[in-house]
Each structure stands twice: as C-alpha cells, then as structure tokens.
Amino acid sequence: MAAYEFTVTVRTQYLPEQSDPSRSNYVFTYAITIKNTGTVGAQLISRHWVITDANNHIDEVRGLGVVGHQPLLQPGEQFEYTSGTQMATPQGSMTGEYFCVAEDGHQFETKIPEFVLSLPRTLH
Q1: What pLDDT digit, counting tens, does each position of 40-97 carry?
Q2: Cβ neighbours of residue 111 under 8 Å, at least 6 residues apart?
Q3: Residues 34, 6 contacting (CB under 8 angstroms)
Q4: Are the beta carbons of 36 and 6 closer than 8 angstroms?
Q5: What percent of the chain has pLDDT over 90?
Q6: Backbone angles phi, psi at 88, to 5 degrees
Q7: Average pLDDT in the 22-51 region?
Q8: Which PROSITE patterns is this protein grouped with (predicted)?
C-alpha cells in the first residue's frame, strides 16, 4: 500500500538588524525542512501560507514551489530552505500547506504545522 507523506519541521529567527519597531516593522526568517516520510517519490508543486500577526491581521500567500524550487523527493530524502516574512507586530504565527503530486499521479496536501514568530523573551 502506497503512503503519501511529507513531514515538515521549522526553525524561526527574529532579525533585529532588518527590523524597525518604531515603524511597526518586524522581520523574521524561518528555516523549513521537508522530508518524504512516505513510500512513494513525490514533488512539491505549490504552497499556501496563512500569516497572522498579533492584531489578527491575516496575509495569505500562494505560489508555485518554494524559493524557486519544486523539489522531487524520493522516500527518505529531504529538502531544506530558508525564507522570511515581515509583520507589523512583534509576535505572530504562520501555518499552511504544500500541494504535492506523487510519481504515480496521486495528489496530496502536506500540512505545515502552525509555528510562532516572536521577538526573543517576549512570550510570558
């Protein structure tokens, strides 16, 4: 039985040198690791992000691939990339999904678990 599964892990970082709190501009990077934990090779085709700041302002981002790539991952292979976002508040969160197509034509979504973007030492 074929299993279609990518596993996503995330690391985040606040970039104070690119941020300007006096202008309500906070910049964060996130490093994503996508691993094919299924049994069939599959390609990441597109992405959908939901970015929510502390004021509940939501930005949605859709697009092909990730950082200009549409990686084809065989079982056990992984792809890593770093990207970033800016928000008007010092805290927020991101979640979303990747849309994938397996080598046998099966289409599936991989959920990106929600993660928090926050200045260091601001969560109590």
Answers
A1: 999 999 999 999 999 999 999 999 999 999 999 999 999 999 999 999 999 999 999 9
A2: 8, 95, 97
A3: yes
A4: yes
A5: 94
A6: -90, -5
A7: 97
A8: APAG
Contact 87, 55 (CB under 8 A): no
Give the three-class secondary structure for 3: coil
Residue 85: CB atoms within 10 A of its CB come to 18
Which two tokens mark 88?
Answer: 């008007």
Whether residue 19 contacts residue 27, with contact meaning beta carbons closer than 8 Å, is answered with yes
Tokens describing residue 102: 């397996």
The structure tokens 């990686």 sit at 71
Q: Is the CA virtual torsion 27, 121, 80, 94 positive or negative? A: negative
Non-local (6+) Cβ contacts of 74 within 8 A are: 36, 41
- Are 81 and 30 in contact by the 8 Å Cβ rule? The answer is no
